[in-house]
Amino acid sequence: MSEKRKVDANSKNEQLEQFRVDDQGKPMTTNQGLKVAEDEFSLKAGERGPTLMEDFHFREKMTHFDHERIPERIVHARGFAAHGEFELYESMKEYTKAGFLQDPSVKTPVFVRFSTVAGSRGSAETVRDARGFATKFYTEEGNYDLVGNNIPVFFIQDAIKFPDLVHALKPEPHNEMPQAASAHDTFWDFIANNQESAHMVMWAMSDRSIPRSFRMMEGFGVHTFRFVNEEGQAHFVKFHWKPVLGIHSLVWDEAQKISGKDPDFHRGDLWDSIENGDFPEYELGVQLIKEADEFNFDFDVLDPTKLWPEEDVPVKIIGKMTLNRNVDNVFAETEQVAFHPGHVVPGIDFTNDPLLQGRLFSYTDTQLIRLGGPNFHELPINRPVCPFHNNQRDGYGRQTINRGQVSYHKNSLAANTPAPVSEEEGGFVHYQEKVEGRKVRSRSESFKDHFSQATMFWNSMSEPEKNHIIEAFSFELGKVESKSVQQQVVDMFANVNLDLAKAFADAIGATPPQKGGSEVTKSSPALSQENTTKKPDTRKVGVIIGHNFNGPDVKSVLDSLKAEGIQPELISNKLGKVKGSDHIELEIDHTFLTGESVLFDAIYAVGGSDVDKKFEKDAKYFMNEAFSHFKPIGATHEGKKLVEEDMKNSPGVVVEDHTDSFTKKFIEAISAHRHWDRKVI
């Protein structure tokens, strides 16, 4: 480097030095330099009361967080969406006056966006992460947004901690790694030091965080809301989306490989299913608790780290959503859609859940920077189907051309219009809940049990699911460099289950805990995917086929699979047509290079009498990998040669030539999704 370059570099470094700050060991302050006395709790009217607008520290912290990145979402950046409709099974008039929940003959248009939380817009889709499940109902009373996740609880109890959670989860700032992953030091340091996260972490380490597809994952509103009927009577309510195809997941090795082979796997699956007419369906369920029963449970109904066990509070199925149209333009629709839990209609109201209270501020604040100003509601995807009139004017992105001279209320020049309307005329009136208490930054004692439901979740899992959770902890913490953080997490989860903590402590070389455990014996069968719906519909089967296959038998099997809604796709060493007996020809969909076993739900080996050694080698790799991922495997005729001896007679492996018998057994194997009792070496 020349002397002049050295001087310039030093000069620039000196120029930057005044902006460098070391926060370690310093007292916390606001951006104005005011020392902060409390950073764990937002300011509320009483310990279980609503968050106050007066809380300048919360607003500064959350506003700064909401505006950290442009233009993609800070969280949920990687997403895909579709249009559809919702139809009610029965009137909910007894519980709510919400118009779209009154008449089963009315179909309500919806727009649904699925997403991962942690990764950037360009990240892979099969990473271990929670998934967003956000639904916009375009009702005649205005837009209603049910903004949830595929996990019913969350990491934190108070929204003021959300920036801290996401900062810890995102790539570490000193090197911007890792992308779309929680297997690193700062995330697990946050978990160990914020133990309210225990329940959510159990879900995140389970199979729920690596779903097979958006079509096969549950959705939850997460928070406790209120239903309010025409008489003003209220019920606490939680929302559930139940996929008609059941809840199914990937295995971790498979998920990692798909991230490399097809980072668009989930969006491609959703797009293709709609294009094929296999419309994804979800039933809407609600859990209802009378206000008089608010304190009759061993958990606080307002705690977002707690679920309501379905065995204690049954889910009432009230309707079905069908996604039947893909977007025309991803940017205009999927990226510009703006969800907000505060977009409600009469009959749906809020509670004092402190995480929900903060989201009611944060979502609008986020849209202001992400979509360029206050008129994001005028973008086509966000516009309600009903008219809207008010005195808001101008601003970035304004599309409405308002006529007349009046833009204020009250007025005489426009006969005092637009004017508020009464509750009887459909005006939204907040539920009149009595609120009184000291202004405090604290948390209710009823929020301080962090481990009992985490233990209940563990108790509810099948043995394969428990093994997957142990493997997930072992992988994630195996990536953590800090021995201290590893040990803290081991000690923390000893409070959930001692055997769990000992198992992953052994895997990562930490000191196994000698005490801990939980006296909780309760379980909830509804939490285990072992008890989910199991159907063959829309499953993708990779058919390995070569020249001179048995034409009539294979065609019969393929036709039978299609009749059950299964999608066979043909794989060979070359694209083009493959010829079988009786002049039957089939078109190849993938080669061994462009198709991978991880992209299919099952493998059917047909083979052929005219295949070479390279074909056999590639085919056996497909079969072995699918076998190791516990997937169904079928083989007939020459395809039987591709099945290794140690695979035969294993659960989920069907090897025989009798067409009708083979087809029936193979479809049953596909319906099971995975065969966990298989011995995989």
Automatic annotation (TrEMBL):
Cellular component per GO, a single term: cytosol
Cross-link 3'-histidyl-3-tyrosine (His-Tyr) mapped to chain: H340-Y363
Cofactor: heme
InterPro entries (UniProt xref): Catalase, Catalase_AS, Catalase_clade2, Catalase_clade2_helical, Catalase_core, Catalase_haem_BS, Catalase_immune_responsive, Catalase_large_C
Catalytic residues identified in the record: H76, N149
Enzyme class, spelled out: oxidoreductase
Keyword Lyase: no
Stated role: Decomposes hydrogen peroxide into water and oxygen; serves to protect cells from the toxic effects of hydrogen peroxide.
UniProt record similarity statement: Belongs to the catalase family. HPII subfamily.
Name under which the protein is recorded: Catalase
Naturally occurring in which organism (per UniProt): Halalkalibacter nanhaiisediminis
